[in-house]
Each structure stands twice: as structure tokens, then as C-alpha cells.
Amino acid sequence: MTYNGPFYLSEDEIHEIYFYSIDWAGNKEITKSIQIKVDTLSPQTNVIISGIGIGGIYRKTVYISLESYDEHSGVNVTLYNLDNEGWNEYTNQLVISEEGSHILQYYSIDNAGNNETIKTITFQISYN
Ligand SMILES: [Ca+2]
Questions:
Q1: Could you tell me the distance, in angstroms and rounded to a whole number, from the CA of residue 94 to the centre of ligand 1?
Q2: The pTM of the whole model exceeds 0.70
Q3: Distances from the Cα of 55 to the Cαs of 52, 63, 81, 125, in angstroms?
Q4: Beta 57-58 vs 100-110: how paired, if at all?
Q5: Between β-strands 87-89 and 75-82, what pairing exists: parallel, antiparallel or unpaired?
Q6: How far is CA 21 from CA 3, 7, 17, 18, 36, in A?
Q7: Helix (H, G, I), strand (E, B) or coil at 122
Q8: Ligand 1 centroid to 46 CA: how many Å?
């Protein structure tokens, strides 16, 4: 194809573009290529909560894992905010043993800068 001006890549995938120029004398430049990743999809984060209890009320320590997945560009970071103490980067399983009601918010950002909508779960720890 002859280049006529800017063009759009809208499909979510890795695009490989090959290009070269030819001068008036017919000399062809070496073919070059660039890779362009298009990613419009937000990541998905799932919460895995484990502990002893039923119906969101736990009798002992609660363990929370956040598993994230992203199509195309991959997950850059997963963030969580436990009991409104502020946003932190998720790296390891969360261990919560303080009695009372808890609220956990979480979401991920992919390598293209797409933010997942913040998700929220609530649970309670009661030793009695
Ligand atoms: Ca994505």
C-alpha cells in the first residue's frame, strides 16, 4: 500500500507495520517495522477470600488474594484500599484478623493505562 496520510488502528491486538520508501531514482530503502499494540479493554480483578465462616462473617483470620488478568497489554498494577486506610499496591496475600466490619476496594490498571472500575467487598470478623 502507498502511504497517503495518517491511518487508524482500532482493533485490539498487536499490529505489525512494515514500511520503506523509494526515491525518484528507484532506490528502495531497507524495510523497517514497528509493533503497535492496541488495547482498549480494562483488566479484570477477582477476589479470593478464604477463612472460616459463613455468609460473610468469619470466625478467624481472613486471607484475601487478588488475581488480575488483562487481555492484550497485560496488568501493570493492582491496587487495594482496606478500611479506607488508603490505596496500596497489591503484592502479597492480605491477612486480616482484626474483629469488626471490613471493607475492601480494589482494581487494576493495564499497561495501556486502562483502569478497571473499582470493586468493593465487605465482610465481618467475629470471634464469638
Ligand atoms: Ca487491556
A1: 25
A2: yes
A3: 10, 16, 22, 11
A4: unpaired
A5: antiparallel
A6: 10, 17, 14, 11, 20
A7: strand
A8: 15
**Given the C-alpha cell 462473617, which residue does it identify?**
57
The structural domains of the chain, ordered by start, are 44-125 (2.60.40.10)
- Distance CA(20)–CA(1), nearest Å, equals 11
Q: What pLDDT score was predicted for residue 32?
A: 97
The pLDDT tens digits of the residues spanning 58-113 come to 999 999 999 999 998 899 999 999 999 999 999 999 999 999 999 999 999 999 99
Task: Give, as residue ranges, everything with CB less than 5 Å from ion ligand 1.
Answer: 39, 41, 70, 72, 110
**92: phi then psi, degrees, rounded to nearest 5:** -125, 165
